[in-house]
Design brief:
binds N-(iminomethyl)-L-glutamic acid, four-stranded parallel beta sheet, globular, single chain, alpha/beta, about 20% strand, about 400 residues, binds fe (iii) ion
Length: about 400
């Protein structure tokens, strides 16, 4: 048993049932038992026996401690960039038009297929380290820029390996139904057959934790999405969906019908979609970086989500086309300024609700029995994490009980 004690800190426990905003404890003590939290509470209530048993003591110097942050929706592994497309969009061509002309996701697929695993690892590692420098200890990484068995495998293997070479938990999502690859032009149903076959293969290799699709005019229809989800369910895999990003195609209702962990984007979400998500317990993953970068004007229906009690997560959507962003703290700020979340909702969106969007129950709140993934911040109040942008407030990270 190697217990360690953290004192001289405030703790934003983010416990849902806590009466105080952020579950904030002003003068807190945390006892870590290896990779797990043993005790969290006001220092005045720390049992003396437990305090004496702590071999290591950390004086946090008045810092704020939060759970390690969770980025629950990224496309971190890809080749190339889309800066030229950004210029095109600024001259008036829309994201959808560029996709229909063979650019967009298809252009990143070309670059990803050409890249070696080493090149993909190097560029993804740079992006991952930027996220980790802002306190991210768990990250979801989607495939979806290979769109054929071997390049999808490479991307998922790269993603898995990043979780072994960096002090961060990586959760992988298979997004074979992201776009129609050029070799299947005019044969999208045939491509869905291939997606189902790829899923079985990659799942058997242990590379898939969840399954996603892009249900949209420039993606796949609800019927095609349902075929992918049926295959996922047969394997016992949870699903999530890029839903109602550019139009309302009823994707949220469909995904909810499959008990989706989350529906993501949701600018065009309908009242029926929100009700279905509430009934299924699906999390709404808000992606303000994509909204901002595509210069969208239609905001996700936040009040509707609140009325239905749908949990809201916030994520970077880190990808080359709609959100080339590696700052989860900037997303906290944008979730507040652009979507009108409260700073407390935004912080829950990168902790408790982000964990829920990944189906993880062992982290994201500071409580006994939870993983000891902590972020230690040079701020006086948790709202500062959403308030400042471009600040570098992270002081230290504890990952699975180990100080980094
Ligand atoms: O989450 N909308 C679909 N997928 C990504 C963007 C992919 C791309 O443009 O490369 C998203 O926005
Ligand atoms: Fe995305």
């Amino acid at each position: 048993m190697s217990l360690s004690l953290w004192t001289h800190c405030q703790a934003a426990t983010m416990q849902a049932q806590a009466a105080r905003p952020y579950g904030l404890i002003a003068d807190a003590a945390l006892v870590l038992d290896g990779p797990v939290l043993r005790w969290v509470g006001p220092r005045s209530e720390l049992p003396p026996d437990l305090a004496r048993a702590c071999i290591t003591q950390h004086d946090a110097g008045g810092a704020l401690i939060t759970p390690g942050l969770i980025d629950c929706h990224t496309h971190l592994v890809y080749g190339g960039d889309r800066a030229a497309e950004f210029e095109q969009r600024l001259q008036g061509t829309s994201y959808e038009e560029i996709a229909r002309q063979g650019g967009g996701i298809a252009s990143t697929v070309r670059a990803t297929r050409q890249a070696s695993a080493e090149q993909l690892t190097a560029s993804a590692s740079t992006r991952l380290r930027a996220l980790m420098a802002e306190g991210v200890t768990t990250v979801e990484i989607k495939s979806g820029y290979g769109l054929a068995l071997e390049p999808e495998r490479t991307c998922l293997e790269v993603a898995r390996a990043l979780g072994h070479t960096h002090p961060v938990s990586v959760h992988t999502t298979f997004l074979g139904a992201h776009a129609l690859p050029p070799e299947f032009a005019g044969r999208s149903d045939d491509y869905i057959d291939t997606v189902v076959a790829m899923l079985a293969d990659l799942y058997a290799q242990g590379l898939v934790d969840a399954v996603d699709a892009f249900c949209e005019r420039i993606g796949f229809s609800p019927a095609q999405t349902a075929r992918v989800f049926t295959a996922a369910r047969a394997l016992g895999l949870p699903v999530k969906l890029h839903a109602e990003q550019l139009s309302d195609s009823g994707g949220a209702q469909l995904a909810a019908g499959f008990g989706a962990l989350s529906c993501d984007h949701l600018e065009w979400l309908s009242a029926e979609g929100a009700a279905a998500m509430a009934a299924a317990g699906s999390v709404a993953v808000l992606l303000p970086g994509a909204f901002y970068f595509l210069r969208e004007t239609r905001v996700p229906p936040i009040d509707l989500l609140r009325q239905h009690g749908v949990a809201m997560a916030v994520s970077t959507d880190c990808n080359p086309g709609s959100s080339p962003c590696t700052s989860l703290l900037l997303m906290l700020n944008m979730a507040c300024t652009l979507f009108r979340l409260t700073p407390e909702e935004a912080l829950a969106g990168v902790t408790r609700h982000a964990a829920q969007a990944l189906g993880l129950h062992d982290r994201s709140v500071l409580a006994a029995g939870m993983r000891a993934d902590l972020a230690v911040w040079d701020v006086q109040h948790p709202a500062e994490l959403a308030y400042a942008f471009g600040a570098r407030p992270l002081r230290q990270v504890v990952f699975a009980g180990v100080l980094r």
